[in-house]
Amino acid sequence: MGFSFTLDDLKRVLWTAAQAFIGAVLVLAPGIFAAPNFEAAKALAVAALVAGVAAALSALKNALLADSSPIK
Q1: How many other C-beta atoms lie within 10 A of the C-beta of residue 66?
Q2: What pLDDT is attached to residue 72?
Q3: I need a surface site. Which of 2, 4, 31, 42 has the fewest CB within 10 A?
Q4: Taking all residues of the chain, what is their mean pLDDT, rounded to a whole number?
Q5: Model-level pTM greater than 0.90?
Q6: What CA–CA distance (Å, rounded) separates 16 from 20?
Q7: Distance between CA 44 and CA 63 in Å, rounded?
Q8: Is 71 helix (H, G, I), strand (E, B) or coil?
Q9: Domain spans of the chain?
Q10: How far apart are CA 5 and CA 57, in angstroms?
């Protein structure tokens, strides 16, 4: 265990954020696409928040685990 953050780690974090955002948008899709309004904006904000939390946790995991870790 150590602290390092490489370009490959950044790619993993961005991929996690993209997957989380797309997943949250799909779950919230009825509210987002039914009628574009303030509720849709709130739903997109929630999706962005979910993606941000997922990316932060992914960054922490990738920074703390060694490159040889099987769960990285």
Answers
A1: 9
A2: 65
A3: 2
A4: 80
A5: no
A6: 6
A7: 28
A8: coil
A9: 7-64
A10: 13
